[in-house]
Each structure stands twice: as C-alpha cells, then as structure tokens.
Design a protein that fits this description.
About 40% of the residues lie in helices and about 20% in strands. The protein has helices spanning about 30-35, 40-55, 60, 65-75, 80-105, 110-120, 125-135, 190-200, 245-265, 285-290; strands spanning about 5-10, 15, 25, 140-150, 155-165, 170-175, 205-210, 215, 225-230, 235-240. The protein starts with 6 loop residues before the first strand and ends in a 25-residue tail after the last helix.
Length: about 325
C-alpha cells in the first residue's frame, strides 16, 4: 500500500496517530496481525541456498575460502532483498490502483506517472490486468486509501478502497501477487480476511489528517469483503466467507492483546537478573546447625533395643 499520512514506523511496529501533530498511540491492523506470523526459516534457507547456486562468482570462488565467505555473506541476505523488492513493487502497484480510483472520482491524480513508474521496471502488466478487471467488474469507487480507527480495541489501519460493485458495497484490499507455473496469479493468504474484518469493525474514518478530524465510520454495515490479487497475468478477486468472520475477528482481538502484553512485558523491567555466588563458607552453615542425635546411656537403654548396638541379649 502507499504510505498513509498518520502511519509511523516505531520500535513496536507500524503505529498510527490521531493527527499530524500527535504521536502514534495505537498499532496498525497489519502490525497486530503480524503477532501471529509463522516461521519462515525454511523459506529463508531456500532463498540463501538458491542465491549461492545462482551467484556468477561461485565458480571463481571455489578453492578460495575468502571468496567463498563473500559469496555466502551476500547470499545470507537474499530473502531480505527479495522481501524489500517485493514491498517496493507492491507500493508501486497500490499507487497505480489508487490513481485509477481518484481519476474515476474526478479528483486530482497522477495516473500517468504511476503507469510510467511501472513501465520503467517492466511491470506494466500489473496495470494492464488491473484496468481490465476494473472495467469488467464496473467498479464504482467511493473512497480510496481511507484510514480508519477503532478506539474500543485500540487499532487503526488504511483500507485500499471502498467501492460499489454490482450494486453491493465492498471493502477491498489489494495484494500484489506473482504468477505460478500455470500462468495463474498465486493464492491469497487467509490473513486478508482478518485484515478486512478489522477494517469493517472500525468506528471512525479520517477526514483531515492535519486537523485530526474524524467522522463515524459509514461503511461497516454488512459490506462485501474482497481480497483482490493483482498479478501480471490476471486479477483474481476473492470474497471473505461470511461464516468465518466471527472467528477471524476473535483471533484479531487475541493478537491485539498479544501486542499489548509484549509491550507491557518490556516496560515491566528486566526479565532475567544475575545471580551472584554465595558468600564464602555459606555452604558449611547447614552442617553446623545440624546436630547429631544424642547417644542413649547404657544404663538407661532398653534391653529389647540393645540388639541395635550389637549387644547380645541375656
């Protein structure tokens, strides 16, 4: 997505403020969802191994430990480079989608510049397929890139588009996707349902970022929630199953608590404290305090128990 005016990068993840003059106070929808992210260790390993194999310097580096270390070091950041490049591409595609909506609303737009930026990187197919989808589905935009806020649970986010399609109110989130070997755009992740239902549950929407003006959220009553995968070969819209929305909302609420608990745990102080060794001689104290049982005088000993001392009975 493009960069919302009130979004801030913080040590706690992406957060939102109420105006341009106020500090951020609540996490973004995507930050909350990221609390439940799964491990990507396998993917990181694959990307690193693939980068080594494809590195043109590998052949020359064989037999040279120093050159091999250089190849390995560069390959170790392959997944981060891929992630960053994908994020930048996604920003360009989202920007184009936003400009299409602004033009349809007769508002100022930069559609030509957005398309030129995609074309300059050989990504114009994303724009071509999006234009085809927009026309085929007869999308009637209402509000592109609209920032929303939920004060009760404490989060905010920016929806890519509110529109009407086939007469039905829709909340839309775009996902830029690669194409698989069959020429089809790759599947959306189910997490998009959490993202959309959190947007639907908003209480306010932004009117003016500078003034910090908000109004009651007007589009949360039974909208159609659409995740739209935008690829170079096709655009595939997917509808959130209304039967699962409560479960995804409950999961989002639980992840919001996880985010807060993580911050509270850090604010509480150090989790681990050093343990010094015990004072010299402290290990002898218990032995000194313990006393041996007193011996029973021979003259008072019970004859029946004298066997315990090894004495024969009379």
């Amino acid at each position: 997505m493009t960069e919302p005016a009130l979004a801030h990068a913080t040590e706690y993840g992406r957060m939102y403020s109420r105006s341009l003059s106020e500090p951020p106070t609540v996490p973004s929808i995507t930050t909350v969802i990221s609390q439940g992210s799964t491990s990507l260790d396998g993917w990181h390993s694959y990307m690193a191994a693939s980068a080594v194999v494809k590195d043109p310097k590998l052949t020359a580096a064989l037999g040279s430990p120093s050159q091999l270390r250089s190849v390995v070091k560069e390959a170790s950041s392959a997944s981060e480079r891929y992630r960053d490049a994908a994020a930048q591409r996604g920003t360009r595609v989202h920007f184009y989608c936003e400009q299409v909506a602004l033009r349809a609303l007769d508002r100022p737009h930069e559609l030509e510049r957005a398309r030129e930026e995609l074309a300059a990187r050989g990504e114009h197919q994303f724009a071509d397929r999006f234009d085809e989808w927009w026309k085929l589905y007869d999308v009637q935009p209402i509000a592109p890139e609209i920032t929303v806020w939920n004060a009760e649970l404490g989060y905010a986010g920016t929806l890519d588009l509110v529109a009407r399609i086939g007469g039905r109110l829709c909340l839309i989130d775009y996902k830029t996707k690669n194409t698989d070997r069959d020429g089809q755009v790759k599947q959306l992740d189910d997490k998009v349902v959490m993202q959309l239902v959190a947007g639907m549950k908003a209480q306010e929407s932004l009117v003016d970022a500078g003034a910090g003006t908000w109004e009651p959220w007007a589009y949360g009553q039974d909208p159609l929630l659409l995740g739209v995968a935008v690829g170079q070969t096709e655009v595939r819209p997917m509808r959130a199953n209304p039967e699962v929305l409560p479960q995804h909302w409950f999961k989002f609420c639980a992840l919001r608590r996880v985010w807060q608990t993580s911050i509270d745990a850090v604010a509480a102080g150090r989790a681990l404290l050093p343990v010094p060794p015990p004072p010299v001689g402290a290990h002898e104290a218990p032995a000194a305090q313990a006393s041996a049982p007193e011996a029973v005088p021979a003259e008072t000993a019970d004859p029946q128990t004298s066997v315990a001392a090894g004495a024969p009975q009379a």
